[in-house]
Give the backbone structure.
Amino acid sequence: MMKQISLAFGLQELTICLPQKNLIEFIEGRETVPVNDVSLAVREVLNNPIASPSLREVVQPGDKIVIIASDITRQWVRHDLFLPDLLDELNSAGIVDSNITLVTALGAHRRHTWEDNKLTYGQEVVDRINIVQSCAAETADFAYCGCTRRGTPVYINRHVLQAGKVILTGGITYHSLAGFGGGRKAILPGVAGYETIQANHRLCLSPGQGNGPNPECRQGNLATNEMHLDMLEIAAMVKPDFLLNAVFTAAGDFAGFVAGHWYEAWLSGCRQAAAIAGVPVSDPADVVIASAGGYLKDINFYQASKAIENACLAVRAGGILIVVMECREISEPPDFSQWFDYSTLYARETALREEFTVPGFVALKLGFIAKSTPVIIVSQPENQVFLEKAGMLFAVSLEAALQLAAAALGRQEFRISIMPHGGNVVPCATSSR
């Protein structure tokens, strides 16, 4: 008996028929009802916070408030939909808009334009409160706060350090370096200086040139993740007063919000995110076929590569990964695609150790994944040269990809798992859950 499988590919779908007996499972996130009334959900958590008094009790009339918010690269967090409710709650506590400053957590990203602010935070927020930007390269904006146990020199934006009260905002999803996003990441890299970001992010590399990514810096791992633990230590130096973070469904809608203590509330949000997007997989497959999730998630290789990082976790040792991604803008952004110009992984790693960037780390990690697990990319024919330079195998169709997989495995019969939303779902070994 055959089963027809359809996977998102840009704005279209690719379809293939597979023997039912060869299919192990569909690896999908838990179905979650999205939030229907965002304002109501936000007010509820602000007044019933985790491990903290309510926001109205935390702030006092006359306080100078700083809200740290993600930049346009995290536009999917949809700050524009919940920041107005946070501002209204602060107003109800006696804080006037003129005493509220939003600090854009650029980290090492480019500065925002006025239009970027409007797109990221919404017209109402732009009109109501002052917005300043924390740009890591502008060293005069940062003050030295000490050094972590791991040797990271800590520089934090002066607007944050001089605030009467600091509120962290953001979104919690799995993060391929820090375990989970949100929470303390508003501080580092968000409002940290360049030297601090570089030192912390280098913890994602294994000790010793040539050893590649640190295997402990991965999706879902907090207990032994040196990057995350360093971030926690730095956030504790800042002593944020409150947190409001969003949690998302597998489709990217709001699943809920958490508020309260900057660490305890965030940790609760991480557990919620893991329950939605972390999928127990007890039987790794010979071949995993994944979709990056279609447009916009496969607009370029950088976005679509999340599916490779996730789906490889469901492949058995010696197995094959097939990922479908249209990549109509294959080489965007340039600060990612340029890393594939290095002729070897060793050279790529050397350059990354000299000047760390997240796109560079993703490029290095992809190279090491492809080195241990062959990755076949189904994409447009014009993308073949780029993808092969990136260390991937190329196929023009799912049928061709399966033929390549059969040749690599040395047999025509093999067990297959399907990941329709590879960019949003993280396979987890059953024993670790």
Summary: The mean pLDDT is 96. The longest strand covers residues 315-324. The chain has two domains: 2-30+282-432, 38-276. The CA atoms of residues 203 and 292 lie 28 Å apart.
